[in-house]
Specification:
By secondary structure, this protein is an all-alpha fold. It has two domains: 82 residues, no CATH class; 68 residues.
C-alpha cells in the first residue's frame, strides 16, 4: 500500500524473538515470585537461617529488597541448571552444509560437549562440597590444612584428567566395529 512504510527485517525478527521469549520470561517471573514468597514467609515465621545468623533482619517488611535479591539469585540458579539439563537432553537438529563434517563427526562433538558439561558440573559440585567441608570444620578459606589441600589437589587432578579424557579421540563404538567386521568378513561364493 502506498503511504505505509515497510518494517525493517531486523525489527520483525526482534518482535518474533520477544513473542517467543514471553513464555520463558513469564515462567521466570513466576518462579522468582514463588521463591520470594517462600523466603518472606520463612523470615516472617522466624524459621529462616538468615535470621538465625543475622537476628537484626527479623523484619521481612524492612528487608524485602534483600529477600528479592535472594529470590532472583536462587531462581537464576534454578533456571541455569534447568537450561543446562535440557540442553544435554536435546542438543537440537544437525544441519549440514557443503564442506562441513559428516553427521558422525558432529555427533561426536556433541558427545564431547556433553561430557565436558557433565565434568564441569561435577567439579563445581566437588569444589562446593570441599568449601562447605572446610567451613563446617571452622577453617579459614585462605589457610587450609593438609587434608583440605590434598582434597583440592585431587579435585584438580580429576578435572585435568577428566578434560583430557573428554577431549581425546573417541574410540569406535560397538556398532561401528560390528559394521567394519561384517564388511571385512570373507565373502562366500554361492554356486
Amino acid at each position: 500500500m502506498p503511504g505505509r512504510e515497510r518494517i525493517p527485517a531486523d525489527r520483525v525478527a526482534l518482535r518474533g524473538d520477544l513473542r517467543s521469549a514471553a513464555p520463558d520470561a513469564t515462567a521466570a517471573v513466576l518462579v522468582t515470585a514463588a521463591v520470594f514468597a517462600l523466603l518472606y514467609a520463612r523470615m516472617e515465621s522466624g524459621d529462616s537461617d538468615t535470621v538465625a545468623v543475622m537476628p537484626f533482619m527479623n523484619d521481612p517488611g524492612t528487608y524485602w529488597m534483600y529477600l528479592l535479591s535472594q529470590a532472583f539469585g536462587w531462581s537464576a540458579l534454578l533456571w541455569a541448571w534447568g537450561t543446562v539439563m535440557l540442553g544435554l537432553l536435546d542438543p537440537g537438529p544437525v544441519r549440514l552444509r557443503t564442506g562441513e563434517a559428516s553427521r558422525g563427526v558432529l555427533n561426536r562433538r556433541r558427545g564431547v560437549r556433553t561430557r565436558l558439561v557433565l565434568l564441569a558440573s561435577g567439579v563445581y559440585a566437588a569444589v562446593f562440597a570441599l568449601l562447605l567441608w572446610q567451613a563446617l570444620r571452622g577453617q579459614p578459606l585462605i589457610h587450609p590444612d593438609g587434608m583440605t589441600l590434598a582434597a583440592a589437589l585431587a579435585i584438580l587432578a580429576v578435572a585435568v584428567l577428566g578434560t583430557y579424557g573428554c577431549l581425546r579421540a573417541p574410540t569406535r563404538s560397538r556398532a561401528e566395529a560390528a559394521d567394519t567386521a561384517v564388511a571385512d568378513a570373507p565373502k562366500e561364493l554361492v554356486s
